Backbone:
């Protein structure tokens, strides 16, 4: 039910790859999931079929940054998750003497009445997605029709509630300009 379909016309051996999940069932809260291969990270996640806030409950990155989930709403006819998978190389930590490798992309999430996210030191915002099982929570909150908050630096949603919560996910990418901050912060 959650098979992944590769869209070959967008991919080449060392480039990003676009994938899609199967269309979800029409039941409320049914999901379509597009999952990247190991060694890759979701760097774009959207509800291909649109309708966020009416026909869809939005989209979010899950599974350690490997999958894009699109969620059908009560009035939806089924959704399709669409993701861009980018090679998630491990890079050497910029800190002197460290032998740890760090991922180029990191995915983080927050849930609650007013979820908000910022990237950790050494990373900059790349993609912000929004999801709520109550589609009306996403209306007039800066979430576009495919479940993306266009300005990832402001990855937040206000005005949800404890009982009808919202969920934001943020994909962050490594910023070589912030190397000194990582090592001293």
Residues:
């Amino acid at each position: 039910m959650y098979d992944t379909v590769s869209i070959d016309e967008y991919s080449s051996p060392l480039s990003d790859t676009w994938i899609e999940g199967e269309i979800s069932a029409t039941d409320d809260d049914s999901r379509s999931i597009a999952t990247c291969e190991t060694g890759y990270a979701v760097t774009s996640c959207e509800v291909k079929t649109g309708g966020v806030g009416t026909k869809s409950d939005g989209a979010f990155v899950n599974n350690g940054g490997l999958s894009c989930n699109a969620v059908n709403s009560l009035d939806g006819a089924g959704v399709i998750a669409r993701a861009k998978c980018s090679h998630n190389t491990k890079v050497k930590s910029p800190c002197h003497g460290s032998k740890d490798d760090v991922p180029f992309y990191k995915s983080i999430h927050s849930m609650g009445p007013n979820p908000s996210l910022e990237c950790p030191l050494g990373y900059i915002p790349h993609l912000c997605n929004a999801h709520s099982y109550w589609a009306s929570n996403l209306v007039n909150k800066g979430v576009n029709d495919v479940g993306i908050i266009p300005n990832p630096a402001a990855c937040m949603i206000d005005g949800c509630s404890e009982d009808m919560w919202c969920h934001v996910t943020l994909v962050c990418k490594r910023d070589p300009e912030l190397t000194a901050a990582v090592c001293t912060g």
About this structure: Helices lie at 179-184.
